[in-house]
Design brief:
The complex is a heterodimer of chains A (about 120) and B (about 120). Chain A is an all-beta fold and about 120 residues long. Helix content of chain A is about 0%, strand content about 55%. Chain B has about 120 residues and is an all-beta fold. In chain B, about 40% of the residues are buried. Classes of the chains: A mainly beta (about 120), B mainly beta (about 120). Chains A and B meet through strand 5, strand 6, strand 10 and strand 11 of A and strand 4, strand 5, strand 9 and strand 10 of B.
Chain lengths: ~120, ~120
């Protein structure tokens, strides 16, 4: 069974600094995908970044990068040069690669960027 | 360009009443999902449909039923609503096969359901 763990309910970061949001996953699948989503206070869900289990390089998308440590089953999101607009809930998710298409989320981390 | 459309956006029910949440996507996606979001619990998967004609239970299926009516539409039914089903419900879809596995999820705006 898949399980996603986000141990930081809330985080603060100073504007322009970098912040790491933790995510660990538990899956018996050999093939899987890891995703991060952002949910601003307005409620919509926004896809940020994807990492495949067979990808050797860490994924990057603009100011977002995913620190993928497969042996530790860790997929931390790094946001560089934080902006006030980065204040939101952030969810880590895993998608099963076993053909079941199951897509499981963690409980989220609320990030507040301070001016 | 509508993407994923959910209706209704708000609903208040009394305990024991039934209702159906409708979801439609216009992106020709194969996979569709229903989640509920509760404070402190993230998004929990209720049911999903990997492709037209198939549905599977997620993490919290009890008290819900689904129908994949066609490739575009995936409805969620509460047969006898309970206060514990008060939540925000999200429908989502993904392409099904892509360079990103099943692909990232595209979400509807959410439906806020209150059961009294």
């Amino acid at each position: 069974a898949q399980k996603i763990t986000q141990t930081q309910p809330g985080m603060f970061v100073q504007e322009k600094e970098a912040v790491t949001l933790d995510c660990t996953y538990d899956t018996s699948d050999q093939s899987y995908g890891l995703f991060w989503y952002k949910q601003p206070s307005s409620g919509e869900m926004i896809f940020l970044i994807y990492q495949g289990s067979y990808d050797e390089q860490n994924a990057t998308e603009g100011r977002y990068s995913l620190n993928f440590q497969k042996a530790r089953k860790s997929a931390n999101l790094v946001i560089s040069a934080s902006q006030l607009g980065d204040s939101a809930m952030y969810f880590c998710a895993a998608q099963s690669g076993s053909g079941t298409y199951k897509y499981i989320f963690g409980t989220g981390t609320r990030l507040k960027v301070l001016a | 360009n509508a993407g994923v459309t959910q209706t209704p956006k708000f609903q208040v029910l009394k305990t024991g009443q039934s209702m159906t949440l409708q979801c439609a996507q216009d992106m020709n996606h194969n996979s569709m999902y229903w989640y509920r979001q509760d404070p402190g619990m993230g998004l929990r998967l209720i049911y999903y449909s990997a492709s037209e004609g198939t549905t599977d239970k997620g993490e919290v299926p009890n008290g819900y039923n689904v129908s994949r009516l066609n490739k575009r539409e995936f409805s969620l039914r509460l047969e006898s609503a309970a206060p514990s089903q008060t939540s925000v419900y999200f429908c989502a879809s993904s392409v099904g096969t892509s360079p990103r596995g099943t692909g990232e999820l595209f979400f509807g705006e959410g439906s806020r359901l209150t059961v009294l």
